[in-house]
Amino acid sequence: MRVLLPVIIGLLYATGIYLILRRSMVKVIFGLVVLGHAANLMIFTVGRLTKGSPAFVPHGATGIAEPFADPLPQALILTAIVIGFGIQAFTIALFKKTCQSLKTEDLDEMRNTDQLEKESP
Q1: I need a surface site. Which of 29, 33, 62, 97 has the fewest CB within 10 A?
Q2: pLDDT (tens digit, 9 = 90+) per residue, 71-100?
Q3: How confident is the model at residue 63 (pLDDT cuts 50, 70, 90)?
Q4: In percent, how much of the chain has pLDDT > 70?
């Protein structure tokens, strides 16, 4: 398990970067989604996977009994998921508006927007 998760995280990062470098806007959006999942998985892994009890202090105790799950990485991941959904929604809306106005989804064709503006009435 200690070797499998870093390999999976590396593959997700490589896949996300590969998709972002493609010419299609849809692949760029999928690349952003995959990079978000890779970052969440990395934060989860850094937080040390433990099969412990929740981080609650029992009544009458002075501290938490070992082993316990660290709640900070879990809170960071929940925040990252919400921010990731917001970025994905904005990217999809921007993609839709760009495709409607330029009538293409190819990034190479979008570089020549000056010519498209001159041709349109």
Answers
A1: 62
A2: 788 888 899 999 989 999 998 998 888 888
A3: confident
A4: 82
Query: Does residue 67 have a cis bond before it (omega within 30 degrees)?
Result: yes
Question: The domain at 4-51+65-105 falls in which architecture?
Answer: Orthogonal Bundle (1.10)
What percent of the chain stands above pLDDT 90?
Answer: 29
Using CA atoms, how far apart are residues 87 and 81, in angstroms rounded to an integer? 10
53 backbone dihedrals φ, ψ, rounded to 5°: -85, 165
Q: Which of 87, 119, 90, 91 is nearest to 105 (CA)?
A: 91
pTM of the model: 0.72
3-state secondary structure of 56: coil
Residue listed under structure tokens 């499998």:
4
Give the domain ranges of the chain.
Answer: 4-51+65-105
